[in-house]
């Protein structure tokens, strides 16, 4: 068992609170992604799990064992860094087996573990080479192999793909996910890229200013964001937001949206206005049925064809909105078109707290 438990963990650097009383559980065998903007504390939190940063407060356990005060080597973890950190004078085989050699493992066991990991990662033919003769993707696989041969209870990944180009990122991302499916080792992965988070994580933890904004599956975060920050951070292109006044009807509050009304949750009754969120893929060309859709006449500001879809920037009565459309579109900049959005796809947030308003 290698579940990870954090209870009221905090980290301070002088007077700066970097991690603020974070409590979370990562299940045995889970692939958990920590995501957030720069400065959110995700790498610091990972380093605390690894033992590279001491906790200022709170407790951490791995596999039911309190590791709060233990050094990294006593935590049974292996870490893959952004910078690869390979020894240039050593071969691939020597780099992968170096930690085992230091630990005093028999030569035959080191060779067996290195060969096994190399076969799994497609590195067997590269074992005699040195890092200078490898591509960036190959070097990152060597770094992963070096972690694998230790057979740890937990893998920790600190933005391992940020040095790779887009095509290699997609390839190695798939390799890491396949590796996790085969090994089923508890893994914690840090990234600032929400596409990486959505495609890799069994569960995602969204951090901001050292606090957990929301934790859940990719689908939960995408379809039911806890607040405006998560709604805007998860998804590409980002969710559209616009404010709408609340009309306090006798039976339930409604929002007045560009000549159309939208029923709101009952707890919006005390608000003068709400912030509404609409994902670009839910805004489409066409006339609206007022019973089921919001609808406006919009002016096309720009059109970007990017292959599988086209992105439109529209000037509407509620502000500038981004829309995505599968395939091409006949719309041209400057053209006036009718657009619509299903009412049941509109998200509602408190404009003061940013919290999600739910039915």
Quickly describe the structure.
The protein has 359 residues and is α+β, with helices and mostly antiparallel strands. Helix content is 24%, strand content 35%.
Report on the structure:
- Keywords: ATP-binding, Cell membrane, Membrane, Nucleotide-binding, Transport.
- This is sn-glycerol-3-phosphate ABC transporter ATP-binding protein UgpC.
- InterPro entries: AAA+_ATPase, ABC_transporter-like_ATP-bd, ABC_transporter-like_CS, ABC_transpr_MalK-like, ABC_transpr_MalK/UgpC-like, Mo/tungstate-bd_C_term_dom, NA-bd_OB-fold, P-loop_NTPase.
- One of its GO terms (biological process) is carbohydrate transport.
- With 359 residues, the protein is an alpha+beta fold.
- The protein folds into two domains: 4-226, 3-Layer(aba) Sandwich (Rossmann fold); 237-349, OB fold (Dihydrolipoamide Acetyltransferase, E2P), CATH 2.40.50.
- It is 24% helix and 35% strand.
- It has helices spanning 42-50, 92-102, 107-121, 136-148, 166-183, 194-200, 218-223, 228-233; strands spanning 4-13, 16-26, 31-35, 57-62, 65-66, 77-80, 154-158, 186-191, 203-208, 211-216, 240-248, 253-257, 260-263, 273-278, 284-285, 293-305, 309-316, 319-326, 336-342, 347-349.
- The strands form four sheets. It has a six-stranded mixed beta sheet, with helices on both faces. A five-stranded antiparallel beta sheet has the order 13-12-11-14-20.
- Strand 9 and strand 10 (211-216) form a beta hairpin.
- Helix 2 (92-102) runs parallel beside helix 4 and helix 3 crosses helix 4 (136-148).
- The two termini are 39 Å apart.
- The model has no long low-confidence stretch (mean pLDDT 92).
